[in-house]
User: Fold this.
Amino acid sequence: MQFFVKHLYLIAPILAIAAVVGGYFFLKSKIKPVPHVEIKHEEIVFDAEEYLRSLKAKNKPFNQQGVHLLLLKRTRQKEGVYLESLLPAMDSAGIEVVHCFHKVMGDDYVPVITSGNDYPYHAKNSKHYMNAALDFRIVNLPMNKRRELVEMAQLRLGYRFRVLWEKGEAEHLHVELLE
Ligand SMILES: [Zn+2]
Assistant:
Protein backbone atom coordinates (compact mmCIF):
# COMPACT_ATOMS: atom_id res chain seq x y z
CA MET A 1 0.00 0.00 0.00
CA GLN A 2 2.83 2.26 0.85
CA PHE A 3 4.37 1.42 -2.51
CA PHE A 4 1.16 2.31 -4.33
CA VAL A 5 0.80 5.64 -2.56
CA LYS A 6 4.45 6.39 -3.23
CA HIS A 7 3.99 6.00 -6.98
CA LEU A 8 0.51 7.55 -7.19
CA TYR A 9 1.83 10.36 -9.31
CA LEU A 10 2.44 7.84 -12.12
CA ILE A 11 -1.29 7.25 -12.62
CA ALA A 12 -1.84 10.43 -14.64
CA PRO A 13 0.85 9.78 -17.30
CA ILE A 14 -0.11 6.07 -17.51
CA LEU A 15 -3.75 7.01 -18.12
CA ALA A 16 -2.67 9.58 -20.70
CA ILE A 17 -0.58 7.04 -22.60
CA ALA A 18 -3.39 4.48 -22.36
CA ALA A 19 -5.83 7.07 -23.77
CA VAL A 20 -3.55 7.89 -26.69
CA VAL A 21 -2.87 4.23 -27.50
CA GLY A 22 -6.56 3.33 -27.10
CA GLY A 23 -7.58 6.24 -29.29
CA TYR A 24 -5.12 5.16 -31.94
CA PHE A 25 -6.49 1.61 -32.07
CA PHE A 26 -10.07 2.89 -31.96
CA LEU A 27 -9.52 5.15 -34.98
CA LYS A 28 -7.63 2.47 -36.79
CA SER A 29 -10.55 0.10 -36.43
CA LYS A 30 -12.90 2.75 -37.86
CA ILE A 31 -10.87 3.49 -40.95
CA LYS A 32 -11.89 1.13 -43.66
CA PRO A 33 -9.10 -0.02 -45.81
CA VAL A 34 -9.30 0.99 -49.47
CA PRO A 35 -10.49 -2.13 -51.25
CA HIS A 36 -7.92 -3.52 -53.57
CA VAL A 37 -9.30 -3.52 -57.06
CA GLU A 38 -7.38 -5.23 -59.74
CA ILE A 39 -7.72 -3.46 -63.05
CA LYS A 40 -7.29 -5.82 -65.90
CA HIS A 41 -5.95 -4.34 -69.08
CA GLU A 42 -6.92 -6.26 -72.12
CA GLU A 43 -3.67 -6.98 -73.76
CA ILE A 44 -3.67 -6.15 -77.46
CA VAL A 45 -0.87 -7.91 -79.14
CA PHE A 46 -0.04 -6.86 -82.65
CA ASP A 47 1.39 -9.75 -84.47
CA ALA A 48 3.08 -8.40 -87.59
CA GLU A 49 3.49 -11.83 -89.12
CA GLU A 50 -0.13 -12.72 -88.59
CA TYR A 51 -1.11 -9.44 -90.21
CA LEU A 52 1.09 -10.09 -93.23
CA ARG A 53 -0.35 -13.59 -93.53
CA SER A 54 -3.87 -12.17 -93.54
CA LEU A 55 -2.90 -9.78 -96.32
CA LYS A 56 -1.64 -12.62 -98.47
CA ALA A 57 -4.51 -14.96 -97.65
CA LYS A 58 -6.73 -15.89 -100.53
CA ASN A 59 -10.53 -15.71 -100.39
CA LYS A 60 -10.42 -13.14 -97.64
CA PRO A 61 -13.54 -11.04 -97.32
CA PHE A 62 -13.24 -7.61 -98.83
CA ASN A 63 -12.12 -5.06 -96.35
CA GLN A 64 -11.65 -1.35 -96.85
CA GLN A 65 -8.21 -1.80 -98.35
CA GLY A 66 -9.50 -4.56 -100.59
CA VAL A 67 -12.19 -2.34 -102.07
CA HIS A 68 -9.63 0.39 -102.67
CA LEU A 69 -7.30 -2.02 -104.45
CA LEU A 70 -10.20 -3.33 -106.53
CA LEU A 71 -10.98 0.20 -107.69
CA LEU A 72 -7.34 0.72 -108.68
CA LYS A 73 -7.36 -2.60 -110.49
CA ARG A 74 -10.58 -1.98 -112.41
CA THR A 75 -9.57 1.49 -113.59
CA ARG A 76 -6.62 3.27 -115.06
CA GLN A 77 -5.50 6.48 -113.47
CA LYS A 78 -4.26 9.52 -115.28
CA GLU A 79 -0.67 10.29 -114.34
CA GLY A 80 -0.42 12.18 -111.08
CA VAL A 81 -3.85 11.19 -109.80
CA TYR A 82 -3.79 10.84 -106.02
CA LEU A 83 -6.21 8.33 -104.53
CA GLU A 84 -4.31 7.01 -101.54
CA SER A 85 -6.43 8.85 -98.98
CA LEU A 86 -9.71 8.38 -100.78
CA LEU A 87 -12.60 7.91 -98.35
CA PRO A 88 -13.83 4.30 -98.16
CA ALA A 89 -17.30 5.38 -99.28
CA MET A 90 -15.73 6.80 -102.42
CA ASP A 91 -13.95 3.53 -103.12
CA SER A 92 -17.34 1.84 -103.11
CA ALA A 93 -18.85 4.61 -105.23
CA GLY A 94 -15.97 4.29 -107.67
CA ILE A 95 -16.61 0.56 -108.04
CA GLU A 96 -20.26 1.33 -108.68
CA VAL A 97 -19.31 3.80 -111.43
CA VAL A 98 -17.01 1.19 -112.97
CA HIS A 99 -19.99 -1.16 -113.00
CA CYS A 100 -22.00 1.50 -114.84
CA PHE A 101 -19.20 1.88 -117.40
CA HIS A 102 -19.33 -1.89 -117.94
CA LYS A 103 -23.10 -1.83 -118.41
CA VAL A 104 -22.86 0.96 -120.95
CA MET A 105 -19.59 0.14 -122.73
CA GLY A 106 -19.17 -3.57 -122.12
CA ASP A 107 -17.32 -5.58 -119.51
CA ASP A 108 -13.92 -5.07 -121.08
CA TYR A 109 -14.05 -1.31 -120.77
CA VAL A 110 -11.49 0.14 -118.39
CA PRO A 111 -12.55 3.58 -117.15
CA VAL A 112 -9.94 6.25 -116.56
CA ILE A 113 -9.93 8.26 -113.34
CA THR A 114 -8.67 11.71 -114.20
CA SER A 115 -8.68 13.24 -110.72
CA GLY A 116 -8.89 12.45 -107.04
CA ASN A 117 -7.20 14.71 -104.52
CA ASP A 118 -4.51 16.04 -106.81
CA TYR A 119 -5.52 18.73 -109.26
CA PRO A 120 -4.87 22.20 -107.78
CA TYR A 121 -7.52 23.99 -109.84
CA HIS A 122 -10.73 22.59 -108.44
CA ALA A 123 -13.08 25.02 -106.72
CA LYS A 124 -11.76 26.15 -103.34
CA ASN A 125 -14.14 24.03 -101.28
CA SER A 126 -14.13 21.15 -103.70
CA LYS A 127 -14.78 17.70 -102.31
CA HIS A 128 -11.67 16.66 -104.18
CA TYR A 129 -9.57 18.21 -101.43
CA MET A 130 -11.45 16.16 -98.83
CA ASN A 131 -10.72 12.91 -100.64
CA ALA A 132 -14.43 12.72 -101.30
CA ALA A 133 -14.61 13.15 -105.07
CA LEU A 134 -13.53 11.37 -108.23
CA ASP A 135 -13.49 12.41 -111.87
CA PHE A 136 -13.91 9.93 -114.69
CA ARG A 137 -13.02 10.47 -118.35
CA ILE A 138 -16.06 10.33 -120.59
CA VAL A 139 -15.08 12.45 -123.61
CA ASN A 140 -14.12 9.32 -125.52
CA LEU A 141 -17.65 7.93 -125.20
CA PRO A 142 -20.34 8.61 -127.82
CA MET A 143 -22.75 11.30 -126.62
CA ASN A 144 -25.66 8.93 -126.07
CA LYS A 145 -23.43 6.63 -123.99
CA ARG A 146 -22.29 9.53 -121.84
CA ARG A 147 -25.87 10.39 -121.05
CA GLU A 148 -26.72 6.78 -120.32
CA LEU A 149 -23.70 6.48 -118.03
CA VAL A 150 -24.42 9.66 -116.07
CA GLU A 151 -28.07 8.74 -115.56
CA MET A 152 -27.22 5.23 -114.47
CA ALA A 153 -24.56 6.44 -112.03
CA GLN A 154 -26.99 8.93 -110.48
CA LEU A 155 -29.58 6.23 -110.09
CA ARG A 156 -27.25 3.61 -108.63
CA LEU A 157 -25.32 5.86 -106.26
CA GLY A 158 -28.44 7.36 -104.74
CA TYR A 159 -28.88 10.26 -102.38
CA ARG A 160 -25.55 9.93 -100.57
CA PHE A 161 -23.64 11.03 -103.64
CA ARG A 162 -23.75 13.79 -106.20
CA VAL A 163 -23.10 12.84 -109.79
CA LEU A 164 -22.31 15.73 -112.14
CA TRP A 165 -21.82 15.76 -115.85
CA GLU A 166 -19.23 18.50 -116.06
CA LYS A 167 -19.34 19.87 -119.56
CA GLY A 168 -17.14 22.30 -121.40
CA GLU A 169 -13.49 22.11 -122.23
CA ALA A 170 -12.57 19.58 -119.55
CA GLU A 171 -15.69 17.47 -119.84
CA HIS A 172 -15.83 14.64 -117.31
CA LEU A 173 -18.02 12.76 -114.90
CA HIS A 174 -17.69 14.07 -111.37
CA VAL A 175 -18.82 11.95 -108.38
CA GLU A 176 -18.71 13.24 -104.85
CA LEU A 177 -19.81 12.10 -101.43
CA LEU A 178 -22.40 14.35 -99.78
CA GLU A 179 -22.18 15.01 -96.04
ZN1 LIG B 1 -14.49 16.63 -110.01
